[in-house]
Structure of Ig-like domain-containing protein:
Amino acid sequence: MEKRVMTDSKRRRGLTVASALLGGVLVLSACSGGGDNANGDEGGDGTSQAKVDEAAAEKTSEAQIKITPKDGSTNASINNSAAVTVTKGTLTDVKMTTSDGTAVSGEISADKKTWKPSVQLERATTYKLTATAKDAEGRAAHENASFTTVSPANSFIGTFTPDDGTTVGVGMPVSITFDKAITNKAAVQKGITVSTTSGQEVACHWFNANRMDCRPEEYWKEGSTVTLKLALDGVEGASGVYGVQQKTVTFKIGRNQVSYVDAKTKQMKVTQDGKTIRTIPISAGAPENKTYEGQMVISEKFKETRMNGATVGFTDDDGKGEYDIKDVPHAMRLTTSGTFIHGNYWGSPSVFGNVNTSHGCVGLQDKKGANDPNMPGAWFYEHTLIGDVVVVQNTGDKTVAPDNGLNGWNMDWAQWKAGSAV
């Protein structure tokens, strides 16, 4: 009896342990995988995980869009920064705007792989780009970026002469004036090339931190073409100051005309290809206001202009200009400081060829109103190009400074080349 009770007790304990173990298995099974399949081979809807991943991959475009400069960039170039490219796909839409929403025109390439703006960007401006591309399966990819171009404070530009497409005289140098002082002159000069179809060697000379002129040893060959290339985009001209220009300029050299003013004989010989085509009586600077000597290049032409002595230091006791002529005819600038060769209607005709009476300019007989083509002043004006040379001799004054106007020809070749930074 006692033995049977003990046996039944053991049997009940065995059943209880078995139930507990079975329950544990069920609990463990219920907690693993979260579904009917404890190994995770199927999703809740019966789809395998591999198939889910494959479906997600199929929905993602393979097209890879790249926008430059990268999002958030500052001091970006106004020439080469903005660009969109795509691999494993083709561009379908690109939009570029300024921060205020103004659209910037641009073009997608024929193969639909690249996009660039069709206009130069502005400095100190924030631009936004949005791009869409499709892969071979037609699946779309999108990319966005925003960047800010270099500010005027952190960039420099060079104002150059002569202008693109012009025809100039044989004495016309390439002259570049920078709006910031250049301390890395070699780097900037390496970004500028000047070449000529005549094959003449061209050298550049720095007059100061803001100006560089370029010329050959002798005057340009008539009929040649000169090319100026500015590759200054991104060039560091000074600490934290970068170039933004990327430009090619070409100009042509006209006939070889050089005019010789002799203050002693008071005559000017106009020559072309070394032959005198006309001799014109002149009146140069008076003994107390001598005209500079030297080779001078005509840099500007005005059919009529005002000349006020006060602007060049000729004033009376009251501080007013010793002269103020509001309609000087046929004026052509020779120096920055105010030397001109120009028509003169107020002087007696007997002055020209006989007496030097001016404040330093070279005067030619002319008529008020600049409308008489038979006057020497009018003839010379009509037969002159920007860049023609006027050589002034026998005045008794000093030679004009090479940087006073476009007059670097008054420096010999060795001195000129010594002013190069490279």
